[in-house]
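Field log, afternoon session.

UNIT: design team B
ACTIVITY: writing a sequence onto a fixed backbone
BACKBONE:
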């Protein structure tokens, strides 16, 4: 008997801290008005997506002392937005990015547990970290955290929040006919003592319908992969080819057993862009137009500055790449992560590609943006999404639109029906909680996690 095909997991991303969105397109709507968040969330739920994903930064980035032209000024705080979306959706998971460096476990545990109750068990926390002193200036501690200590704090942060969530047993609320629900004595009592946190008290939010909010983590380093294998339910990553995706997938899945976990306990969902048109040729032309919109001359210079670490504001984006070598450790663009681990080698690679293809600086930057993309007719895109998942390059994808809130409409309306025809995507929600959508186990109260501090 043939084995059952893997089911795809899909999520909708609402960007706000990157250069994906084309702000100048006539179809682009507000990035801060609630109607935009609601429109994308409602469409994603109608398409039975697993969850709606909000990115967030803690400080507006700057370039040459001015606010970066790709950042959203006035963006509402993510959990507040999701609490409002909980009232206008019924099944869609609601995921917020919240920093583990500049927050405290009690407050984050309380906020996500509240969202989980208000939504009926649909909350998710995308755990991020930072060692950026520029961002740290917004907080009392400043930029105190060494880069190497980010995951040390984050792991203990997650342990502490889980201690709080586990402080209520699922039956700690008993129904009294006259007074309503009353807590059993001792419900919510907690204590955590570690190198990063020493806290104790009583947690005021009862255990939620899915036990714990879903934990999402993004990271590609060895430490980040171990963090995901130990603590995450979903890992959000990016890989430009099928082979790179398969290598990452197998490496992270292999690490799960080191922490006493099963292969299906962690879902790998890369962030991807999708461009759909009537034919493959039209889609390729549309994708090229979108990339030119996304990477203007000014944007190309910003992104090149991130690699070179020098002021390129007086350079011609349609001219050649800088002849200088990158300055390692520079921070010309404040509040932006330098993704290249070896700027000198990356600059060499860019120069070789530019020379071989006759590319300008802007054309090189466009070509080197390596987010995985699925481009083609609805049939081509549906086939590719399915084949990548069946080939163990992913368990599903977080789709990143170039327009909000309507940038994924072609996927919702033209691709999803084809995935359903292939028998690899649900036609309706089978459960009520996000853990049920993702096929994840519900954690038992007070469980012992292998590898926990």
């Amino acid at each position: 008997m043939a084995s059952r095909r893997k089911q795809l997991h899909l999520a909708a991303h609402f960007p706000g801290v990157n250069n994906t969105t084309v702000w100048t397109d006539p179809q682009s709507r507000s990035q801060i008005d609630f109607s935009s968040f609601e429109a994308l969330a409602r469409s994603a739920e109608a398409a039975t997506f697993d969850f709606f994903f909000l990115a967030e930064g803690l400080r507006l980035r700057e370039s040459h002392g001015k606010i970066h032209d790709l950042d959203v000024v006035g963006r509402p705080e993510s959990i507040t937005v999701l609490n409002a979306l909980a009232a206008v959706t019924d099944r869609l998971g609601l995921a917020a990015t919240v920093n583990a460096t500049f927050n405290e476990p009690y407050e984050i545990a309380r906020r996500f547990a509240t969202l989980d109750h208000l939504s009926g068990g649909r909350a998710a926390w995308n755990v991020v970290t930072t060692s950026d002193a520029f961002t740290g200036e917004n907080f009392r501690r400043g930029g105190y955290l060494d880069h190497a200590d980010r995951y040390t704090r984050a792991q203990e942060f997650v342990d502490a929040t889980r201690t709080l969530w586990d402080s209520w047993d699922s039956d700690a609320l008993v129904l009294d006919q006259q007074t309503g629900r009353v807590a059993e004595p001792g419900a919510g009592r907690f204590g955590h003592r570690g190198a990063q946190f020493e806290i104790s008290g009583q947690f005021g939010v009862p255990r939620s319908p899915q036990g714990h909010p879903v934990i999402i983590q993004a990271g590609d380093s060895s430490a980040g992969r171990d963090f995901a294998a130990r603590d995450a339910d979903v890992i959000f990553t990016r890989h430009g080819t099928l082979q790179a995706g398969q290598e990452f997938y197998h490496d992270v899945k292999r690490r799960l057993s080191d922490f006493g976990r099963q292969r299906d306990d962690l879902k790998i969902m890369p962030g991807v862009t999708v461009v759909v048109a009537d034919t493959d040729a039209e889609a390729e032309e549309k994708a090229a137009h979108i990339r030119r919109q996304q990477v203007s001359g000014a944007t190309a210079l910003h992104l090149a500055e991130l690699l070179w670490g020098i002021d390129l504001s007086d350079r011609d984006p349609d001219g050649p790449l800088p002849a200088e070598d990158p300055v390692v450790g520079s921070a010309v663009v404040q509040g932006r992560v330098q993704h290249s681990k070896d700027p000198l080698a990356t600059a060499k690679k860019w120069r070789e590609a530019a020379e071989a293809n006759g590319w300008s600086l802007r054309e090189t930057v466009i070509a080197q943006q390596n987010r995985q993309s699925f481009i083609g007719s609805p049939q081509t895109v549906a086939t590719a999404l399915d084949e990548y998942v069946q080939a163990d390059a992913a368990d599903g994808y977080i789709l990143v639109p170039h327009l909000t809130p309507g940038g994924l409409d072609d996927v919702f309306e033209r691709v999803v029906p084809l995935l359903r025809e292939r028998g690899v995507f649900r036609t309706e929600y089978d459960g009520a909680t996000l853990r049920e959508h993702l096929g994840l186990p519900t954690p038992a109260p007070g469980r012992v996690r292998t590898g926990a501090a």
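LOG NOTE: Confidence is low (pLDDT under 50) at residues 447-453.
NEXT ACTIVITY: expression trials, pending approval
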